[in-house]
Amino acid sequence: MRLLVTGGAGFIGANFVRLTLAERPDVDVTVLDLLTYAGNSASLPEDPRVTLVKGDVADPEVVDSLVRDADAVVHFAAESHNDNSLDEPWPFVHTNIVGTFHLLEAARRHGVRFHHISTDEVFGDLPLGTPERFTPDTPYNPSSPYSSTKAGADLLVRAWVRSFGLEATLSNCSNNYGPYQHVEKFIPRQITTLLDGGRAKLYGAGLNVRDWIHVDDHNRAVWAILERGKIGQTYLIGADGEMDNRTVISTLLEIMGREADDFDHVPDRPGHDLRYAIDASLLRDELGWEPEHRDLRAGLVATVDWYREHEPWWRAQKLETELRYQRLGR
Ligand code: NAD
Ligand code: TDX
């Protein structure tokens, strides 16, 4: 089987390729990735079963030839960072919406199975301190340019299923953590700043809640959907990992042997979503998926170790990322 993985040099995509090589000996992978600031070929293993093609998902010609040669497409490629989308929204429209359109058209032309990777942020946010969670029936209500372009892409996929009979599935996952995550994101930003002797950076009061899941649990769910998911169905992926940002920072400070007050409050993100929480019962009941990483603290310990041991992987990103945050005042 030949799988086309878009965005396979990014955080979740690279972990997906690694998991696939380790657990699916019958699968060869072609990665289509533009290698933007967020893509890194060093996140991919050197392996004869992996071919990396540098190209844009919004380039119809490259997309057509790669989709034609694939048995299935898993579409991870995206502009993925909310803070960047507030600063400069156009790349989000280009990659997330126009790129998804060209992939869908190619999959339709060549009759190729398609899985679309999306986020829980398409549903907007939930109030703090309630038991309410997102389900596949929650109405779309995105807040940021990032989440609105992901919502737009999801709706294109749904329309291509209904109007053209495209064999597609969708998944909306909560916040991922694990190795190879860009240092612009919350957890690796704090870990690498603390490793450099700096202070952690908390947006606003830090009461915002995210529903953390280990990247391998996300990717195992993607495989379950690819193999056994119902065409046209949206699956929500989450591992009951709710924690507020302030507690995440306290936990990291404790793990890394730092003082409990070694963090700064920095100005809040405009439009900052309060809380995300996923009800993954469809995935569990229909496809029998269960998360393997259930202890968030243990997952954070392993993630701290990974960044401690892989400084050459993240060092080059760190300076430019912090310069960007300095300009944004965060
Ligand atoms: P990432 O930013 O780490 O990786 C994105 C990858 O896409 C990079 O390798 C980048 O080079 C590539 N890319 C960007 N624009 C491209 C283009 N025009 N053509 C080809 N490649 C391009 O992102 P991630 O965190 O790995 O997220 C992957 C997917 O998962 C995204 O679709 C995102 O919306 C979704 N998602 C992420 C999370 C999370 O917590 N990180 C949670 C739920 C869903
Ligand atoms: O330095 C920081 N301090 C801080 O308090 C950063 C970078 C973030 N935060 C807060 C903002 C959020 O409440 O931490 C939380 C997590 O922030 P991000 O890592 O930027 O993630 P989020 O905005 O929640 O979006 C992520 O999850 C859903 C991914 O980036 C998206 O791609 C995914 O769709």
UniProtKB/TrEMBL annotation:
Cofactor names: NAD(+)
Reaction(s) catalysed (UniProt annotation): dTDP-alpha-D-glucose = dTDP-4-dehydro-6-deoxy-alpha-D-glucose + H2O
SUPFAM superfamilies from the UniProt entry: NAD(P)-binding Rossmann-fold domains
Naturally occurring in which organism (per UniProt): Demequina sediminis
Protein name, as recorded: dTDP-glucose 4,6-dehydratase
Positions of transmembrane segments: none
The protein's Enzyme Commission number: 4.2.1.46
Keywords: Lyase, NAD
Pfam family, one: GDP_Man_Dehyd
NAD(P)-binding domain sequence ranges: 4-292
Family: Belongs to the NAD(P)-dependent epimerase/dehydratase family. dTDP-glucose dehydratase subfamily.
